[in-house]
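Quick question, first post here. What does this chain look like in 3D?
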Amino acid sequence: MSSGVKEIIKNWRIAWWGYSIYLGARPFLQFRLLAWIRHWIRFQQDWRHYKKMSPEPGFQLDSKDWIPCLNDRTSHTPLDPVYFHQDVWAAGIIFRLQPKTHIDIGSAATTVGIISQFVPTTMIDIRPLPLQVPGLTFQEGSILALPFSDNSVSSVSSLCVVEHIGLGRYGDPIQPGGSEAAIKELQRVLTPGGNLLFSVPIDAYNRIYFNAHRAFTREYILSQFDQCEVCEEKYIYGKNRVDNYDPQMGFGTGLFWLRKKQINP
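> Answer (accepted):
Ran it through. Tokens below.
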């Protein structure tokens, strides 16, 4: 649904409640009968066509081995533009900086696993990681109480995490001001001169899209990082990554490379 249509629906609260119920129910109502029928017919056509062709030597072909994959014939590579842009951006900076070790707090596990293959990485999350790979260490913990002493970590990432804290979406306790508390904790553990790669939703106004996430203005989110300076910032609007924040574009994602200020003697 386009942002313009969403704004119109929001003017009728009952209609917006109905749409909200639909959003919550959508993951549980994924079966689309007509689409399934269309894809199943195509699958059967492909099967018959394949059987008529010369079989591949040494391979058994039998309908009892069917594993119908019906949703993968798409016109473009399916991906989430936010995670694609932000993860490429963050991994590129970490690769350039080449820290001796890296700490990630709550980011997507696949991204952290890739980073761990060129920088030894410790992943902190409230939900245990069920897999192991060389170079990656998992430690269960909360972004609100990180298991590190003050000024002790020189390279940190937390991508699309802080906006969720305190909304209960991932099983964390309900806590107004959870984002601000998480930011304080990130700054507490970061060493002076240390680097933080950070991303959050940005918008024209500070908003709570309960219980999905919060969104922040650029001015507000950077005001919370009172101990840091900005080394680089990028913004994702739709499918594009741009250099400048534009409130007129509405909802997007801000990518920030921050460095903790040196402590004056």
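The chain has a mean pLDDT of 91.
The chain is about 30% helix and 25% strand.
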